[in-house]
Design a protein that fits this description.
The chain is α/β, with parallel strands linked by helices. The protein is 36% helix and 20% strand. The protein has helices at residues 17-25, 77-92, 114-127, 139-145, 163-188, 196-206, 208-225, 231-236, 269-277, 285-288, 315-318, 349-361, 392-402, and strands spanning 2-9, 30-34, 43-47, 50-54, 67-69, 103-105, 226-228, 240-248, 289-298, 301-303, 312-313, 337-339, 367-374, 382-385, 388-391, 407-412. The protein has a nine-stranded parallel sheet with strand order 7-6-5-2-8-1-9-13-16, sandwiched between helices. The chain has a three-stranded antiparallel sheet with strand order 10-12-11. It has a two-stranded antiparallel sheet with strand order 3-4. Strand 3 (43-47) and strand 4 (50-54) form a beta hairpin. Helix 3 runs parallel beside helix 5 and helix 9 (269-277) runs parallel beside helix 12. It is globular.
Length: 413
Amino acid sequence: MVEVKAVIGKNFGDEGKGQTVNLLCRGKNALVVRHNGGAQSGHTVEEGDFRFVFHQLGSGSYQGCPTYWAGTFLPDLLKLGEEMEDYARTVEKDTRALPVHTIYADPDCACTTVCDVLLNSLTEQLRGKDKHGSCGMGIFEAVLRTKEKSFVLRLRDFEGTDSAKIAGMLRHIRDNYTIPRVRTLRDQYPSQFIRPEILRWTELIMDNNVLHNSAEIMCENYRKYVALADWERMAEQYRIIVFESGQGLMLDWDNEEYSPHLTASHTGMKNVAALLKELEHSQDISTSYSLEVIYVSRTYITRHGAGRLDHECPREAINPEMTDRTNIFNPWQDHLRYARHPSGNEFFRYIRKDLEWLKQLLPHLPFSVALYLTHLDETQGKVIFSDGEVSFEDFRRYCGEYAPELVRMVYEI
């Protein structure tokens, strides 16, 4: 029996998914699967004196668990070396932490490129006060670009090749996709393109040295850190598989009521179910796997970036003394925002919606549901709702009242 754990953020991200994955991997020989988004994720793991924010590495790395990039993940090879080197330096200071030498990856992973990052940054700056709250990592632009097969740069393209070939592929993307997109933006924002800060982005896009330098770094990082591996063969080697989602359910690409302030990926069970379904032809999944879907939430809600946020309140209304070392102010997403949870059935709305996708894709697969609550130390052990506060023990009964058919287990971490 293979244990499958799917860790999913219930809200807008920043719930504590990294800490949850680290907990699930402690003392286990597990495979951690990153399956959505890319380097824009920031999953913090703290254990003793160890603290690290994981972006593309799985959050089970501290426990020595390997990372696998599924085909729906968008790796950023340009940024990968920085994370790997930062982690290596962190490990040197903590003898309990285990080093990471290799990330395993589906050959079909489509890569984020420097063109995506520059175009993303240009677009968001042009929007001004109407910005979407992007973190400037190029994920949305990469998703748009990869809808056209002739503009896809996959991990398999790096195998046995050199930086000159990759630079040529980047030039093809830049000349035939990125520049036409820039022209469209110029027509949309004609008065903005005379501003020096806007011209700077376009200059970087047109600079061939930027392409050549990024191609060299991408190739180097690929050779040093990435090994291509088939998903089915990887899954067969482990008795525990932990799926680590980025962002949260309310930012899912299909959540139209929050459009356009969404992330360009599926943040819940859609990718996970599709990946498990791929294993069906070789194994009887209904008897070979036990699936636990773990939704993670703070005792309150946070949102980093623009967009709707119901029951929003100042940080002081939650706890004036609390600080967040990971989600600090930045020019793309501004300050972290705070809100109270909706009450009653509304608290479980997106969980139910997410599980419906699971039932549709894998109707025969039994599963259990758990809810992990984080940051209780910041709210004196209470869960903050729009109509009041309840203790952790009362929250267990709350789940039994409003979602008895869903949440069987509630944990404090």
